[in-house]
Amino acid sequence: MQRVKWIVAMMLLIGNLLYADSAKEIDRGANEALKQFNREVKGAMTFVQNDVKALLIFPSIVKAGIGIGGEYGEGVLRINGKSKYYYSTASASVGLQFGVQEKSMIIAFMTQKALDQFLVSDGWEIGVDGSVALVDLGGGKSITSKTINKPIVAFVFGNKGLMYNLTIEGSKFTKIVR
Protein backbone atom coordinates (compact mmCIF):
# COMPACT_ATOMS: atom_id res chain seq x y z
CA MET A 1 0.00 0.00 0.00
CA GLN A 2 2.83 2.40 0.87
CA ARG A 3 4.41 1.68 -2.51
CA VAL A 4 1.17 2.54 -4.33
CA LYS A 5 0.95 5.84 -2.48
CA TRP A 6 4.46 6.83 -3.53
CA ILE A 7 3.88 5.74 -7.13
CA VAL A 8 0.87 8.07 -7.29
CA ALA A 9 2.88 10.87 -5.69
CA MET A 10 5.68 10.36 -8.21
CA MET A 11 3.20 10.45 -11.10
CA LEU A 12 1.86 13.76 -9.82
CA LEU A 13 5.39 15.03 -9.33
CA ILE A 14 6.43 14.15 -12.88
CA GLY A 15 3.26 15.67 -14.30
CA ASN A 16 3.76 18.87 -12.36
CA LEU A 17 7.42 19.14 -13.29
CA LEU A 18 6.32 19.43 -16.90
CA TYR A 19 4.39 22.54 -15.88
CA ALA A 20 6.73 23.83 -13.17
CA ASP A 21 6.47 27.44 -12.10
CA SER A 22 9.39 29.83 -12.35
CA ALA A 23 10.83 31.48 -9.24
CA LYS A 24 9.06 34.70 -10.22
CA GLU A 25 5.69 32.92 -10.49
CA ILE A 26 6.18 31.17 -7.14
CA ASP A 27 7.13 34.48 -5.48
CA ARG A 28 4.11 36.24 -6.98
CA GLY A 29 1.82 33.46 -5.72
CA ALA A 30 3.48 33.57 -2.28
CA ASN A 31 2.83 37.32 -2.08
CA GLU A 32 -0.86 36.73 -2.84
CA ALA A 33 -1.06 33.91 -0.27
CA LEU A 34 0.43 36.21 2.39
CA LYS A 35 -2.11 38.92 1.52
CA GLN A 36 -4.96 36.41 1.90
CA PHE A 37 -3.46 35.16 5.19
CA ASN A 38 -3.30 38.74 6.48
CA ARG A 39 -6.94 39.40 5.49
CA GLU A 40 -8.25 36.27 7.19
CA VAL A 41 -6.15 35.95 10.33
CA LYS A 42 -6.27 38.69 12.95
CA GLY A 43 -2.72 39.71 13.89
CA ALA A 44 -1.10 37.75 11.04
CA MET A 45 1.36 40.35 9.80
CA THR A 46 2.51 41.35 13.29
CA PHE A 47 3.03 37.64 14.00
CA VAL A 48 5.02 37.15 10.78
CA GLN A 49 7.19 40.23 11.29
CA ASN A 50 7.92 39.75 15.01
CA ASP A 51 7.68 36.09 15.96
CA VAL A 52 8.67 33.94 12.97
CA LYS A 53 12.20 32.86 11.95
CA ALA A 54 11.09 31.80 8.45
CA LEU A 55 8.01 31.04 6.37
CA LEU A 56 7.61 28.23 3.87
CA ILE A 57 4.80 29.43 1.59
CA PHE A 58 2.97 27.18 -0.86
CA PRO A 59 0.52 29.34 -2.83
CA SER A 60 -1.09 26.37 -4.59
CA ILE A 61 -1.15 22.71 -3.61
CA VAL A 62 -3.36 20.61 -5.86
CA LYS A 63 -4.84 17.36 -4.59
CA ALA A 64 -6.49 14.93 -7.01
CA GLY A 65 -7.73 11.41 -6.70
CA ILE A 66 -10.11 8.63 -7.52
CA GLY A 67 -9.69 6.19 -4.63
CA ILE A 68 -5.92 6.70 -4.73
CA GLY A 69 -4.85 10.31 -4.58
CA GLY A 70 -1.89 12.57 -4.38
CA GLU A 71 -1.03 16.20 -4.00
CA TYR A 72 1.74 18.44 -5.24
CA GLY A 73 2.74 22.08 -4.95
CA GLU A 74 5.73 24.38 -5.19
CA GLY A 75 6.66 27.07 -2.72
CA VAL A 76 9.31 29.37 -1.36
CA LEU A 77 11.17 29.55 1.94
CA ARG A 78 11.46 33.16 3.08
CA ILE A 79 13.93 34.11 5.78
CA ASN A 80 13.73 37.70 7.06
CA GLY A 81 11.20 38.40 4.31
CA LYS A 82 13.58 37.38 1.50
CA SER A 83 13.10 34.40 -0.82
CA LYS A 84 16.00 32.01 -0.14
CA TYR A 85 15.08 28.53 -1.40
CA TYR A 86 12.32 26.86 -3.38
CA TYR A 87 10.63 23.61 -2.39
CA SER A 88 8.10 21.14 -3.66
CA THR A 89 5.65 19.25 -1.49
CA ALA A 90 4.11 15.93 -2.38
CA SER A 91 2.03 13.32 -0.61
CA ALA A 92 -0.17 10.39 -1.48
CA SER A 93 -3.26 8.87 0.11
CA VAL A 94 -5.57 5.92 -0.26
CA GLY A 95 -9.23 5.96 0.71
CA LEU A 96 -12.56 7.47 -0.13
CA GLN A 97 -11.72 10.42 -2.35
CA PHE A 98 -12.82 11.75 -5.69
CA GLY A 99 -12.11 14.99 -7.46
CA VAL A 100 -9.66 17.86 -7.34
CA GLN A 101 -9.00 20.40 -4.57
CA GLU A 102 -6.64 23.32 -4.30
CA LYS A 103 -5.29 24.85 -1.11
CA SER A 104 -2.55 27.17 0.08
CA MET A 105 -0.27 26.41 3.01
CA ILE A 106 2.06 28.53 5.10
CA ILE A 107 4.47 26.81 7.46
CA ALA A 108 6.00 29.06 10.12
CA PHE A 109 9.31 28.12 11.72
CA MET A 110 9.14 29.61 15.20
CA THR A 111 12.61 28.62 16.44
CA GLN A 112 16.04 28.77 14.86
CA LYS A 113 16.62 25.12 15.83
CA ALA A 114 13.52 23.97 13.92
CA LEU A 115 14.55 26.02 10.87
CA ASP A 116 18.13 24.70 10.98
CA GLN A 117 16.91 21.08 11.16
CA PHE A 118 14.68 21.70 8.14
CA LEU A 119 17.48 23.37 6.16
CA VAL A 120 19.95 20.50 6.60
CA SER A 121 17.44 17.80 5.72
CA ASP A 122 17.35 16.06 2.38
CA GLY A 123 13.65 15.52 1.80
CA TRP A 124 11.88 16.50 5.04
CA GLU A 125 8.66 14.66 5.91
CA ILE A 126 6.03 15.78 8.41
CA GLY A 127 5.60 13.16 11.10
CA VAL A 128 8.97 11.53 10.34
CA ASP A 129 11.58 14.29 10.33
CA GLY A 130 9.58 16.76 12.36
CA SER A 131 6.25 17.55 13.91
CA VAL A 132 4.10 20.39 12.59
CA ALA A 133 1.13 21.75 14.52
CA LEU A 134 -1.83 22.59 12.29
CA VAL A 135 -3.25 25.85 13.65
CA ASP A 136 -6.99 26.21 14.23
CA LEU A 137 -7.94 29.83 14.83
CA GLY A 138 -11.69 29.37 14.90
CA GLY A 139 -13.92 31.65 16.92
CA GLY A 140 -12.16 34.85 15.87
CA LYS A 141 -9.00 34.17 17.89
CA SER A 142 -5.95 36.30 17.19
CA ILE A 143 -2.60 34.88 16.30
CA THR A 144 0.21 35.78 18.70
CA SER A 145 3.30 34.12 20.10
CA LYS A 146 1.13 33.27 23.13
CA THR A 147 -1.45 31.35 21.06
CA ILE A 148 1.29 29.68 19.02
CA ASN A 149 3.79 27.82 21.18
CA LYS A 150 5.14 25.05 18.93
CA PRO A 151 8.47 25.12 17.02
CA ILE A 152 6.74 24.63 13.63
CA VAL A 153 3.15 25.54 12.82
CA ALA A 154 1.09 25.37 9.63
CA PHE A 155 -1.86 27.33 8.32
CA VAL A 156 -3.90 25.81 5.49
CA PHE A 157 -6.44 27.88 3.62
CA GLY A 158 -8.40 27.98 0.40
CA ASN A 159 -10.80 30.25 -1.42
CA LYS A 160 -13.19 30.12 1.56
CA GLY A 161 -10.69 30.92 4.30
CA LEU A 162 -8.76 28.86 6.82
CA MET A 163 -9.44 25.13 6.53
CA TYR A 164 -10.00 22.91 9.55
CA ASN A 165 -9.91 19.16 10.24
CA LEU A 166 -7.17 18.57 7.70
CA THR A 167 -4.14 16.39 7.91
CA ILE A 168 -0.74 17.33 6.61
CA GLU A 169 0.94 14.24 8.05
CA GLY A 170 3.12 12.51 5.46
CA SER A 171 3.68 15.61 3.33
CA LYS A 172 7.25 15.56 2.04
CA PHE A 173 9.26 18.69 1.23
CA THR A 174 12.15 18.66 -1.22
CA LYS A 175 14.40 21.53 -2.26
CA ILE A 176 14.10 22.40 -5.96
CA VAL A 177 16.10 24.67 -8.26
CA ARG A 178 14.23 27.63 -9.74
Question: End-to-end span in angstroms?
Answer: 33 Å
- Spans with pLDDT under 50 lasting ≥5 residues? none
Shape type: globular
Query: Total strand count, please?
Result: 7
Arithmetic mean pLDDT: 80
The structural class is alpha+beta
Number of helices: 4
- For the record, the count of structural domains works out to 1
- SSE ordering: HHHEEHEEEEE
> What gyration radius follows from the Cα positions, in whole Å?
16 Å
In percent, how helical is the residue content?
Answer: 25-40%
Strand content: 35-45%
Query: Sheet with the most strands?
Result: 7 strands, mixed
How would you describe the overall organization of this protein?
- The protein is α+β, with helices and mostly antiparallel strands.
- It has one domain (2-176).
- Helix content is 29%, strand content 40%.
- It contains four helices and seven strands; from the N terminus they run H-H-H-E-E-H-E-E-E-E-E.
- Strands 1, 2, 3, 4, 5, 6 and 7 form a seven-stranded mixed beta sheet that branches.
- Strand 1 and strand 2 (82-109) form a beta hairpin.
- The protein is globular.
- The termini are far apart.
- The model has no long low-confidence stretch (mean pLDDT 80).
